[in-house]
Amino acid sequence: MRTTKLSFDRRALATEAMQAATATRARAKLDQTGPICIYGLCETLGVVVRFNNINMEGMYQRGVPARIHLSARRPLPRRAYNCAHELGHHVFGHGSSIDELREDAKARPWENPKEFLADTFAGFALMPIIGLRRAFAVRRWTPETATPWQIFTIACEFGVGYGTLLTHLSAGLNMLSHRRAEALQRVTPKALRADILGKTTSDPLIVADCHRTAPTLDAEVNTLLLLPPGAEIAGDGLVFERDLAVGRLFRAAKAGIFQVRAGDWAVFVRIAPVQKDEPWYGYIGLAQYRHLEEDLDE
Ligand SMILES: [Zn+2]
Questions:
Q1: What is the H or E stretch that residue 204 is in?
Q2: Using the 8-state DSSP alphabet, how is residue 143 labeled?
């Protein structure tokens, strides 16, 4: 009897994915260390990205131009990861395909080499190894001894989810033991937020400390942002909530781009709207227009 399960050389494919991620960043004149805006990268490469109200992860549509469709129903960091995954299908010349919903972000259906390639590409494109090493070193943290909120802070810097960073650190880069990764994976996002904020909330949270290097920070209306102590906002896009020992807590209030300063540190917070009647669904429309103050669609 022949088995239907595909077997493939994961190590060879992972190397291929890493090289493709490096080459793709280089083609777009991005460095090989810092966090990137995946939507900006797609735009540079001529790939059109659109958010839709469809219950899925993402979809790649081959053609001229190539198109990526992402579900606006997924959490913000998940959308960025899904975009990088679909860009992986594009870079490797795969055909049009749809990625069905994966409720468990940690589950990786890696029986399919194309999906393995796209996932591994996404990991390396969003979280380059030199960038992660720098992110831990500059804070004097190490992956193996980092606390859940330290891991979460670095996940926020690279615009990915907590579990996604853990998977990449352990399975992709061998920078974290499987045992420690498993222990950290057991911490739920809700418990993490409660630990950081001192009370439970179902609203998404982004943590930005003064070691964060990216010039922009993507959020959406209702997102909580924990910014460095002393942070001041230009404009009315963020509403101050309260001071915490580790920083100042704000809530994203309206769409647009707003500068935040804390001493020498500065970042442009780019806030996308959410659906008015369904505030848990994100912006629907072309990615390039997601921060416009007025609703604008195709
Ligand atoms: Zn896929």
A1: none
A2: T
CATH code, domain with 85:
1.10.10.2910
Ligand 1 centroid vs 23 CA: distance in angstroms?
A: 20
Give me the number of domains the chain comprises.
2
**Spacing, Cα 65 to ligand 1 middle (Å):** 19
pLDDT tens digit sequence for 241-276: 999 999 999 999 999 999 999 999 999 999 999 987
Residue 260's domain spans which residues? 189-274
CATH number at residue 268: 2.60.40.2020
Instruction: Compute the distance from residue 115 Cα to the ligand 1 centre, in Å.
Output: 5
Query: For ligand 1, a single-atom ion, which residues have Cβ within 5 Å?
Result: 99, 115, 118
What separation in Å is there between the alpha carbon of 179 and the centre of ligand 1? 27
Categorize the per-residue pLDDT at 280 as very low, low, confident or very high, splitting at 50, 70 and 90: low
Question: Whose CA is closest to 74, among 288, 242, 274?
Answer: 274
Q: What share of the chain is helix, strand, coil (3-state, %, to 5)?
A: 35, 20, 45
Residue 93 has pLDDT above 70, yes or no: yes
Tell me the average pLDDT across 195-206.
Answer: 93
pLDDT single digits (tens) 111-126: 789 999 999 999 999 9
In-domain check, residue 295: no
Q: Does 55 map to a domain? A: yes
Q: Are strands 232-233 and 216-220 parallel, antiparallel or unpaired?
A: unpaired
Same domain, 118 and 45: yes
Which of 126, 159, 174 finishes a domain? 126
Asked whether residue 6 carries a pLDDT value surpassing 80, the answer given is: no
* Dihedral over Cα of 290, 296, 297, 298: its sign: negative
Average pLDDT over residues 8-37: 95
77-90, pLDDT tens digit by residue?
999 999 999 999 99
Q: How far is the CA of 67 from the centre of ligand 1 (A)?
A: 14
Domain assignment present for residue 162? The answer is: no
